[in-house]
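Hi P.,

Sorry for the delay on this. The queue was packed all week, but I finally got your sequence through. Input first:
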Amino acid sequence: MTTPQPVLAQLSESAIFLTLTINPGGEAAVLDLLPDLAGLVRSVAFPLPEERLTCVAGFGSQAWDGLFTGPRPAGLHPFQELTGSRHHAPATPGDVFLHIRATRQYPCFELARRVVNRLGDAVSVYDATPGFRYFDRRDLLGYVDGTENPTDAAAARAALIEDGPFAGGSFLIVQKYLHDLAKWTAMPVEERDRSVGRHLADDIEIPDARKAPDSHVSRTTIEDPDGTEHKILRDNMPFGSIARGEYGTYFCGYAADPAVTEKMLERMFVADPPDLLLDVSTAVTGSLFFVPPADFLGDPPVRQG
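Then the structure:
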């Protein structure tokens, strides 16, 4: 396996999820940045080793075709919009995505600022969402997020392609969810537990015999008929704006095979009945990116002309 980007980096206290679109004629500036991206990260990180600053770069399907030549990741395609009986998962723009993580927010901000300044008019910022740790890894709904994340070798198997021309790469699906906290907090705790599939107080999963089939845990558990479970690596984070009254969760899911994440989303939005959590959480963005290995960024196969 070639060297992956820091997909498997330790969960952080802060992040910026930065989505860029490439303006007409901006491809050359993006390609010029890629070999220097690691140096930009070091320029911020080296004086601040305690911040554990990392950056993962991914590319959307259309951008990939406009930037690179040679083999194409087999699973890379535009995010598939989903419309169910009650809920909708939109597909939104995104050519380049940076997942920037650190202990505190200011190194994330500084790296994002330097990247955007370097690219200038070549790109537009579609979205820049700062994420933060909330209490003991809880989301703004009050539940611990990521309890069943795979670790160590299992995390690598879930998130990274093992062989082929893109070994060490990963598929990343991201979505912003806005929460109706007033509606959520008005619900009895028992009803909230039923929606999630876990107990609020102790983070213990409700046993299968008593778990609602349309709970969030049930809908996002992907198993083969023989019981083999397929996992992804999540690095979700809460975000919020008191001024705008927006509070939510930024979903960030890495997978060696995007079909696993897509199956989870299909079960959430299209199944009948859909995921109970969607009654209070509305998806407002959705994009799929391919995260190539680190050495790909160092010497990208540039499309000419």
